Amino acid sequence: MKKQLLVTAMAVGISLCGFAQTKGTNALSFGVNSSTNKSSGNNYETKSKNNSFTLGYGFFFKDNDKIGLDLTYGLNKNSSGNASSQEQKSYGGNLSYQHYFPLVKTLFAYAGGKAAYTYSKSDNLSDSSYPQVSGYKSNQYAIGAYGGITWFVSKRFALETSLLSADIVYNKTEQNEINANNYFTKNEYTSFNFSSQGVINNLGFKIYILF
Fold first, then answer.
1. Rg of the chain over CA atoms, in angstroms?
2. Record keywords: Signal included (predicted)?
3. Rounded distance, CA 72 to CA 209, Å?
């Protein structure tokens, strides 16, 4: 009887602890986000195409505690007929820490923090009737806290969503412009802000491969 109770308790413990939140587990993650928008009327047409890619690695240094590194790349293109177009590229990365809290079987909540850096570059090209060229370079630094839900689907796969976040962001932007008369101007902007987001406007997903 005692043996049966012990086996039952172990089985319940395993089901509650999930599959792969144990010390020594590696987690490889990737994410892709792509969207296209198009608007047209009698005398105009605008197009917008946005793509972002994320590749990350995480390591459970102890049960339910993970550190991670994520690398990101983004490419956004906007055009307005033949009049003008804009292309923006961004590169970045972040270091993160997450602690997982068991909810039901393989479903976990998590909370953590991160430090991030993003470099962005944008170029604007106007039509030939007014050959103005402008662009900017931006460096952004951020620290923040965030949380969400993770479902450890199996021993090898997990799905994770980010529901809440709060960030402190510092941004420095340098804008260069050349007009039709080859007149060059340079502007610099800095900003500092604190923001928080919730489930409705900050829903994102990750897929983990565990090994």
1. 23
2. yes
3. 18
CA–CA dist 133, 19 (Å, integer): 54
CA nearest neighbour of 109 among 117, 97, 100? 100
pLDDT band at 132 (very low <50, low <70, confident <90, very high): low
Could you tell me if 29 and 55 are in contact, meaning their C-beta atoms sit under 8 angstroms apart?
yes
SS3 content of the chain, % helix, strand, coil (to 5): 10, 70, 20
17: left (phi over 0), alpha (psi -120 to 50) or beta: alpha
Burial 53-75 (b: 16+ CB within 10 A, else e): ebebebebeeebebebebebebe
Quote the CA–CA distance of 148 and 162 in Å, as a whole number: 4
Topology, domain 2-210: Porin (2.40.160)
Sheet strands (E) in 41-83: 45-62, 65-80
Q: Which pTM was predicted?
A: 0.72
Q: For 141-189, how does the pLDDT look when each residue is reduced to its tens digit (9 = 90+)?
A: 999 898 999 999 988 899 988 888 888 888 888 877 666 555 556 666 6
Check residue 203 and report its DSSP letter: -
